[in-house]
Structures are given as C-alpha cells and as structure tokens.
Write a structure and sequence with these properties.
Elements lengths: L23 H26 L1 H4 L6 H25 L1 E2 L2 E2 L8 H29 L8 H24 L7 H25 L9 H4 L3 H29 L4 H12 L13 H5 L2
Antiparallel strand pairs: 1-2
Helix pairs in contact: 1-3, 1-5, 3-4, 3-5, 4-5, 4-6, 4-8, 6-8
Length: about 270
C-alpha cells in the first residue's frame, strides 16, 4: 500500500513572520505601528478631500495600493504577534499556516503587490505626474509624501528587513491582471464621475502616447517585479536563510529536554569506578 504524501505545509520556515535582524516581537511591534500610521494617513486623506473629492478617493491607484499596504501591515503584524507570543504544544505557530489554501494564496498575492506596486506608484508619480508641492499646505505635503515616497520606504523594509520569500512568478500574472482591471476602473470613473484619474489616460492630452503610457506601466511592473525578486533572493543568500533549516531549529527548540530520575544519574564516584 502506497504511503500517503503529506500535504504541503504553508511557510515551513516561518518566513512571513520573522526577520534576519530583529526578534519576532520587535517585528510585530514595527508592523503594527506602521499599520496604525498608514491607517491614519488613509483616514486623513479621505477626510481631507471631503465632499466631491471623497467620491473620487477610490478611483486613484495610489489610494488603492495604500489600502493594500494597510491590509498587509495589519494582517502580517497580527500574524507576527501571535507567532511571537503564542505557543501550542511548545511550538511557535501562527493562524495563517492552518487557514484554507485560498486565504494563504491571497496572502502570497498581497505580498507580491506590496513588493512591487509602491515602487511603481512612486516612479510614475514623480516621473510622469510631476507634482508641484510649492503651493501645497503642510498637511497636503505630508499626505503626498506618505503615499508617494514613504510607501516605497515601507515596501523596502519588508523586502530587505524580513524573511519574506521572493514572490512566486505566477503572482506576477495576478499583478498584471490587477493593473488591467484598474485601467477599466479608471475609464469607468470618467464615465460615472466625469473626470480622468490621471492626465496621461486622457486621449486628448496624451495623444499618440496613450498606448505607450499604458504599456510602459505594465512593463515597469514586470521590471520592478524581477528586480525585487532578485533583491530578495540576494538577501536570502547573504543571510543564509534556509526554510528547512529554520523549521528544524524550531522543532529542536520546542522539544523538551530529557531529565533523568535522580536514582538513574551517575555521580562522579560511579563514573570513576570500572
């Protein structure tokens, strides 16, 4: 009778909840603090726009990616906190490892967007949109910097400062599909709200460059994905991260020590006798 093949274990080396540089408890604290910061920035941005502008809030790719970052830091922060402070049978655990596979896959896809979309947003915003911050208020500058500069910094902290694995190549397809769906949303916003989210999507302003802009952003996503994938693999090599070794280490640390009864222990006198 054939031996049943064990089910594939999600994140065997606890990569999503650990860091090569800091303890899981500090990583959890950092992620949760970032989650609070991003949440405040989102609420302020939504409230600051007010009225007619707030109706357009969810039409901007910047805001949608920032919501994704908010989701990531809350989810990963809570999972990391559970891993850092909770033990089951002496072993560290976190709920996502036992959750249904679709939720685990969603977490992987979310990680792929976190590792790439903020960089794309930052590049497009500062290179193409060329904002003028001279006339903006202090609060406006803070909101702009939070969503178009700090976002990339937070992305890099996850890429460089944690053991998060390199995103699967299949998730690149998911990223491209998301961008394609957003393109439809952008033109739907024009139809329903009467405005183009970005000027380079306006055929009258972009002219013959419209297709180039759209394809260029897709190409930028592919390039950023490849670069981030390479950086993560390099980080894994430099930190000598091996998920199988990490899993064995966790099991070893969780194994209770064998304590011999006092009458079975050997004294120095017994050891000296033949």
């Amino acid at each position: 009778m054939a031996t049943p093949v064990p089910a594939r274990l999600f994140d065997p080396g606890f990569a999503y909840v650990t860091s090569p540089f800091i303890r899981p408890s500090f990583l959890a604290l950092w992620r949760l603090l970032v989650a609070v910061y991003v949440t405040i920035a989102l609420i302020y941005s939504l409230a600051y726009g007010g009225g007619r502008t707030s109706c357009r809030f969810f039409s901007y790719f910047t805001h949608l990616t920032y919501i994704g970052m908010c989701s990531w830091f809350w989810a990963s922060g809570v999972q990391t906190a559970i891993y850092a402070f909770y033990r089951k049978g002496g072993k560290p655990v976190y709920p996502l490892r036992k959750w249904p596979r679709p939720l685990q896959w969603a977490h992987e896809c979310l990680w792929s967007t976190i590792a790439t979309f903020p960089i794309v947003v930052t590049i497009v915003y500062w290179a193409i949109l060329s904002p003028n911050l001279a006339e903006a208020t202090t609060a406006g500058v803070w909101g702009t910097v939070s969503m178009h500069a700090v976002n990339s910094f937070l992305c890099l902290t996850e890429v460089l400062g944690t053991n998060n694995p390199a995103p699967r190549w299949l998730t690149l397809l998911v990223d491209i599909i998301i961008l394609a769906l957003y393109l439809g949303l952008a033109y739907l916003s024009k139809k329903t709200l009467g405005f183009y989210v970005y000027d380079f999507l306006d055929p009258k302003k972009a002219g013959n460059y419209l297709a180039a802009y759209i394809v260029g952003i897709g190409v930028a996503e592919v390039i950023v994905f490849v670069v981030m994938w390479g950086i993560i693999r390099l980080r894994q090599r430099l930190t000598k991260w091996d998920p199988t070794v990490e899993e064995r280490r966790q099991d070893t640390e969780a194994t209770p020590e064998l304590v011999l009864p006092s009458d079975m222990s050997m004294s120095d006198d017994h050891k000296s006798k033949p």
